[in-house]
C-alpha cells in the first residue's frame, strides 16, 4: 500500500513536471481554442429571446475594481448601451459581446464618469463592425456637444486607421457618433419604440446637473428601469412600478463620511469638501430599497457603487438595513453581472459573465 502511494506521488510529480515544462505550449493551445470560439461566436445568439440587462461597469468616478457606469441592454438580438464609463467597452467584450454589435448608446447625463469611455466605445464599434454609418448616441440637450467633441478628439486616429487598413475595412462614413438629442415633455421622452422594444427617458433629480435622466425599458412583456444618477425621488418609484428589474445607483453616506474625515485629517480639504457635496445628489442603498419595496419590483440591482468596496464584507455596512426594507432579491452589482428575463416567463436570473 505504502509503495503504491509513493508510486502515485512520483507519477503525479512527473506529470506536474512535464506539464510545467510544456506550460507555454499548453497555454498556446488553450488560447487558440478560446480565440477561435470567441471569433466565431456572438454571445447574443446564445441568449434566449427576451430582455437582458448587464453591467459593463458598476462603479463611479473613484478608482477601484469596478469600471465606470455602463449598462448593457439586450432586447432580442439588439444591443444597446446606457452610459459609457471608463473600461465599459472592454468589459463588454470580455462578457462576450462584440463592440461591433452595438446598435446605439443612450446617455443619462454628462458627468465625466458616464462619458469618459465613449470615445473608445465609438472607435471599437467602428473597427469591430465595418459600419457605414456612425454610432447613434441619444441623450438630453447637450449630447451634440459631447459627440462633436469626441468626434474631433478621434479625428486624427480615424485618418491613421483608414490609411493603414483601407476604406474597405474601415468605411470612413462609419466613424464616430451621431448625436440624437431628445427633449423631455412633462418629464418624459420616448427614445425608441420599434420592433417590440420601447425605451423611455424620464427626468431624475441630480441637481445641479440638468438635465439628467433615467430609462425605462420594456420588451415582450419584460421590464427594467435604470435610475441614472439621482437622489431618491418619486419619479423612479413611479417608473419602476411592478418592473422585473430595477438597476439603481447607490451611495453609502457612512462610508463616504469616513473617506471625508480621512481626507480632512490628511489636510486634503478640497477632497473633504467633495465628499461632503456628493452626499446630497445620490441615493442611499436603504432609500433605493424602500423605492423597490414600494414599487414592488422583482429584483433590485445596485450599481454606480460609491464609494468603492475593496472587501466584499463591506457590502454589509454598505447595504445597512436594505434587506429588511426590501424583502425581494437584491445584489450589490459587480462588473460582468448579467440579469436575464426571457420572454414569456417571469424568470429573473442573475449570473456573472466575467
Ligand atoms: Zn455618476
Ligand atoms: Zn452624475
> What is the CATH H-level superfamily?
Ribonuclease Z/Hydroxyacylglutathione hydrolase-like
Which regions have little confidence, pLDDT < 50, spanning 5+ residues? none
Based on the coordinates given, report the CATH architecture: 4-Layer Sandwich
Termini Cα gap:
44 Å
Largest sheet: 8 strands, mixed
| Total domains | 1
Account of the 3D structure:
The chain has 354 residues and is of the alpha/beta class. The protein has one domain (43-352): Metallo-beta-lactamase, Chain A. Helix content is 37%, strand content 25%. The chain contains 13 helices and 15 strands. The strands form 2 sheets. An 8-stranded mixed sheet has the order 6-5-4-3-2-1-14-15. It has a 7-stranded mixed sheet with strand order 7-8-9-10-11-12-13. Helix 3 links the parallel strand 3 (78-82) and strand 4. One zinc ion (ZN) is lined by residues 60, 69, 111, 113-114, 229, 304.
List keywords for this structure.
Metallo-beta-lactamase, Chain A; alpha/beta; 354 residues; 37% helix; eight-stranded mixed β-sheet; binds zinc ion
Architecture blueprint of SSEs:
Layout: H1 2-21, H2 23-40, E1 50-57, E2 70-75, E3 78-82, H3 88-94, E4 102-106, H4 112-115, H5 118-129, E5 135-139, H6 143-153, H7 155-165, E6 177-181, E7 188-194, E8 197-203, E9 213-219, E10 222-226, H8 234-239, E11 245-251, H9 253-265, H10 269-277, H11 285-295, E12 300-306, H12 315-319, H13 322-325, E13 330-332, E14 337-342, E15 349-352
Parallel strand pairs: 3-4, 4-5, 5-6, 10-11, 11-12, 12-13
Antiparallel strand pairs: 1-2, 1-14, 2-3, 7-8, 8-9, 9-10, 14-15
Helix pairs in contact: 9-10
The structure holds zinc ion (2 copies).
Amino acid at each position: 500500500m505504502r509503495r503504491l502511494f509513493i508510486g502515485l506521488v512520483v507519477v503525479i510529480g512527473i506529470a506536474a513536471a512535464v506539464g510545467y515544462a510544456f506550460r507555454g505550449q499548453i497555454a498556446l493551445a488553450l488560447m487558440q481554442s478560446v480565440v477561435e470560439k470567441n471569433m466565431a461566436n456572438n454571445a447574443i445568439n446564445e441568449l434566449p429571446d427576451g430582455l437582458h440587462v448587464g453591467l459593463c461597469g458598476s462603479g463611479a468616478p473613484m478608482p477601484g475594481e469596478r469600471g465606470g457606469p455602463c449598462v448593457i441592454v439586450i432586447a432580442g438580438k439588439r444591443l444597446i448601451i446606457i452610459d459609457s464609463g471608463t473600461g465599459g467597452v472592454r468589459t463588454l467584450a470580455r462578457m462576450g459581446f462584440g463592440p461591433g454589435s452595438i446598435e446605439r448608446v443612450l446617455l443619462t447625463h454628462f458627468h465625466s464618469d458616464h462619458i469618459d469611455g465613449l470615445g473608445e466605445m465609438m472607435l471599437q464599434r467602428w473597427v469591430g463592425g465595418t459600419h457605414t454609418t456612425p454610432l447613434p448616441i441619444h441623450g438630453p440637450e447637450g449630447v451634440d456637444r459631447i459627440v462633436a467633441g469626441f468626434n474631433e478628439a478621434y479625428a486624427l486616429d480615424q485618418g491613421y486607421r483608414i490609411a493603414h487598413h483601407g476604406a474597405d475595412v474601415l468605411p470612413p462614413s462609419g466613424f464616430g457618433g451621431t448625436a440624437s438629442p431628445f427633449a423631455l415633455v412633462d418629464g418624459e421622452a420616448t427614445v425608441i419604440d420599434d420592433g417590440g422594444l420601447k425605451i423611455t427617458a424620464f427626468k431624475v433629480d441630480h441637481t445641479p446637473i440638468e438635465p439628467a435622466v433615467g430609462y425605462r425599458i420594456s420588451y415582450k412583456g419584460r421590464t427594467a428601469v435604470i435610475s441614472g444618477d439621482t437622489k431618491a425621488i418619486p419619479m423612479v418609484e413611479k417608473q419602476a412600478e411592478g418592473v422585473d428589474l430595477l438597476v439603481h445607483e447607490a451611495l453609502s453616506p457612512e462610508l463616504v463620511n469616513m473617506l471625508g474625515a480621512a481626507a480632512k485629517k490628511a489636510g486634503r480639504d478640497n477632497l473633504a469638501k467633495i465628499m461632503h457635496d456628493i452626499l446630497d445628489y445620490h441615493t442611499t442603498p436603504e432609500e433605493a430599497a424602500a423605492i423597490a419595496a414600494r414599487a414592488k419590483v422583482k429584483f433590485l440591482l445596485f450599481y454606480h457603487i460609491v464609494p468603492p468596496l475593496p472587501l466584499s464584507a463591506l457590502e454589509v455596512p454598505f447595504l445597512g438595513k436594505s434587506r429588511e426594507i426590501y424583502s425581494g432579491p437584491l445584489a450589490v452589482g459587480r462588473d460582468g453581472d448579467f440579469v436575464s428575463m426571457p420572454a414569456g416567463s417571469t424568470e429573473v436570473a442573475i449570473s456573472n459573465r466575467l
